[in-house]
Design goal:
Radius of gyration of chain B: 94 Å
Shape of chain A: elongated
InterPro entries (chain A): ARM-like (IPR011989), ARM-type_fold (IPR016024), Clathrin/coatomer_adapt-like_N (IPR002553), RSP14 (IPR042856)
Strand content of chain A: under 5%
Membrane topology (chain A): Peripheral membrane protein
Distance between the termini of chain B: 198 Å
CATH topology of the largest domain in chain A: Leucine-rich Repeat Variant
CATH superfamily of the largest domain in chain A: Leucine-rich Repeat Variant
Order of helices and strands of chain B: HHHH
Number of strands of chain A: 0
Main location (chain B): cytoplasm
Radius of gyration of chain A: 26 Å
Number of helices of chain B: 4
Protein name (chain A): RSP14 protein
Subcellular location (chain A): Endomembrane system
Structural class of chain B: mainly alpha
Largest sheet of chain A: none
Shape of chain B: elongated
Oligomer: heterodimer
Chain lengths: 340, 297
């Protein structure tokens, strides 16, 4: 018997969970209408199809031009968890593209996403935080996150969330705090981060150190860091075995000991030997930060005395391929050799 | 136990079971003989036989052959019916699968590979961007830290300079003040050196420095003395006045007395009286003069 169907099996790439796409330019408008339909299954299938389409930057552009973001914003507060999960996934993939990021910031999705911070489903929260993280990498995005007043809730969430999500939160915090730090200090971020410094996971330790670095690059941040006595803990972290952790720790110290109190507490915590070790390793990424930190310590008389003995370590750094390291080594030698 | 014996035992059991109810029935007397009749058990077998429990058995066996495979069905060729029709596929009418499938395969594989490449590129692009950004942030942080260090150094130096400058100013000011004070003191000393003697002289001249005893004498003793002297003199004067009055009264009396007496006494009497009155004041004057040197001594 001749039938139009060649075999009894359905073709292998038809996914029954996805809505069928209309041809060409009509695909996205049709999906938009399906998203607004009252029936749950239609919405879910449209979202699944949208997730796949959104990997293409041109589709992202078209979607934003068609006003998808408003319908997505309404779907963020849907009761069904699949809908919420897929919506957040779509938003996080959109945030991977620059057009998507700008569109998201302009249409105020950040404040809409703020309501999802307490969502019971893990994946929704993870996608939300991923979106924040990607948005915060832009300066306008970081400004948007700050304006939405999200920093205190994020700091609070650090204490309670899962590890993966904590990493994302730390990333977004680090980018936001580069801009402004007062809100986070008011929410007690430094003490929370101090606890995270002793977390078993390497990624969390290094990211917590990175956030502390951004905090201490501001003047008021430095004061709080010195007051909360984070410096001794940081010095003990300098000897951590994982390579990423000392890089960021040296960076934090680099900023934090600019203040006189920081410098004296660092000398008191005997930061010099581990830093010298970091400088001596040829391939360490922490070299640059360690050299800068030692430069700061060399401005103290007792630091200078100790470092005069290790002057040739710095001379060896002059051969480093990276130009920044060479410059830093030059400055360090100049400071060590300075006589009052 | 072989199948024979099992079957035999079963048969025996069945027959025993089948017999039981009948015998029980007979024994139970539920079946009562009809009147005039009697139940008698009669052997109805053809041949009399011994009634025993043991039944005559005959064994018989039968055995199937070993299981043989079902023989293959014989080929059934149905009788030919219908009409014979033939088709012939010419050369070139059939499609060549390899050639035809190529474009489809290309599309399929191409799409898959393209999709895979897109995803990999996306990830790679992202990874590149992040690493680029990370390198940039490290550099930026290092430079920023350097900037802050220099700022801090600069601030310290400026503060130090400011402090020293203020100290220096303070020092100068104090020096100036001290010099002025010294000059002022020297001048004042010199000025005042003459002052004291002159002041003292003035005061001495205006009588501020007095000997207390002298003063005492002057202020108290002498007035008292003068008053006493005055008193004494007044007493003297009083005495003299009294004397005068006495003399006057005496003289008047005498006058009166002598006015009545002869006129010769009158002329003598007035001549005496003036002489007496002259003599009286003279006497009093002389007495006064004699008194005064006495008092002045």
């Amino acid at each position: 018997m001749a039938q139009p169907r060649i075999s009894a099996y359905l073709p292998p790439d038809i996914d029954p969970t996805k809505a069928p796409l209309a041809f060409g330019r009509r695909a996205l408008p049709k999906l938009n209408e399906e998203l607004q339909s009252p029936e749950l299954l239609t919405q879910q299938r449209a979202l699944m199809a949208l997730c796949d389409l959104v990997h293409d930057p041109e589709k992202v552009y078209q979607a934003i031009a068609l006003g998808f973001l408003d319908s997505l914003k309404t779907l963020l507060v849907h009761q069904d968890q699949t809908v919420r999960q897929k919506t957040t996934e779509v938003l996080s993939i959109m945030a991977l593209h620059s057009i998507g990021r700008q569109g998201l910031i302009r249409s105020g999705v950040i404040s809409a996403l703020a309501g999802l911070l307490d969502d019971p489903v893990d994946i929704c929260r993870k996608n939300t935080h991923q979106t924040f993280d990607l948005l915060a990498k832009l300066p306008e995005g970081a400004g948007g996150v700050l304006q939405a007043g999200l920093i205190p809730p994020l700091v609070l969430k650090l204490k309670t969330e899962l590890d993966e999500i904590q990493e994302l939160i730390l990333d977004s915090l680090s980018n936001c705090l580069r801009v402004e730090v007062s809100e986070a200090l008011a929410a007690g971020a430094v003490s929370v981060l101090k606890e995270k410094l002793s977390h078993p996971s390497t990624a969390i330790r290094s990211k917590a150190a990175w956030v502390l670095l951004e905090i201490s690059s501001h003047a008021e941040g430095k004061i709080v860091v010195c007051k909360e006595e984070v410096i001794p803990e940081l010095v003990s972290l300098l000897e951590d075995t994982q390579p990423e952790v000392p890089v960021n720790t040296a960076g934090v110290l680099m900023f934090a000991i600019i203040t006189p109190q920081g410098r004296s507490s660092a000398m008191g915590a005997e930061a010099v030997p581990p830093l010298l070790q970091l400088v001596a390793e040829e391939t360490s990424k922490a070299r640059l930060n360690a050299i800068k930190t030692l430069t700061l310590l060399a401005e103290l008389p007792e630091g200078r005395r100790t470092l005069l003995d290790h002057r040739d370590t710095f001379v060896r750094c002059l051969d480093d391929p990276s130009e920044a390291v060479q410059r830093a080594a030059d400055i360090a030698i100049a400071v060590i050799d300075w006589k009052p | 136990p072989s199948t024979h014996e099992v079957k035999r035992q079963r048969r025996a059991q069945k027959q025993v079971l089948a017999r039981k109810p009948l015998e029980e029935q007979i024994r139970s007397e539920a079946l009562k003989p009809v009147e005039g009749r009697e139940h008698v058990s009669v052997q109805t077998e053809l041949y009399l036989e011994e009634i025993s429990d043991r039944i005559i058995e005959v064994d018989g066996e039968c055995q199937t052959d070993e299981f043989l495979d079902r023989p293959p069905t014989p080929l059934f060729i149905p009788a030919k019916t219908g009409r014979d029709v033939a088709t012939q596929i010419e050369e070139g009418e059939l499609f060549d699968f390899d050639i035809e499938v190529k474009p489809m395969l290309e599309v399929l594989v191409g799409k898959t590979v393209e999709q895979a490449l897109l995803e990999v590129m996306e990830e790679e692009e992202l990874a590149q961007l992040w690493s680029h950004q990370r390198a940039f942030t490290e550099l930026r942080n290092a430079e920023f830290a350097e900037l802050q260090r220099l700022e801090e150094q600069d601030r310290r130096i400026r503060e130090e300079k400011e402090r020293r400058r203020l100290e220096h100013l303070e020092k100068l000011r104090k020096q100036k003040e001290t010099a002025e004070k010294i000059a002022a003191r020297a001048f004042a000393q010199r000025y005042l050196a003459d002052l004291i003697p002159s002041v003292f002289n003035n005061l001495h001249d205006s009588g501020f420095f007095y000997d207390p005893i002298e003063r005492d004498i002057e202020t108290e003793f002498l007035p008292w003395l003068m008053s006493e002297v005055e008193e004494t003199l007044q007493k003297k004067v009083l005495g003299r006045t009294m004397l005068d009055s006495l003399i006057r009264t005496v003289v008047e009396k005498r006058l009166d007395e002598f006015s009545h007496p002869p006129p010769s006494d009158q002329t003598e009497a007035p001549a005496e009286e003036p002489r007496a009155t002259d003599a009286a004041p003279q006497v009093s004057g002389e007495a006064d003069a004699a008194d005064q040197p006495v008092t002045e001594e």
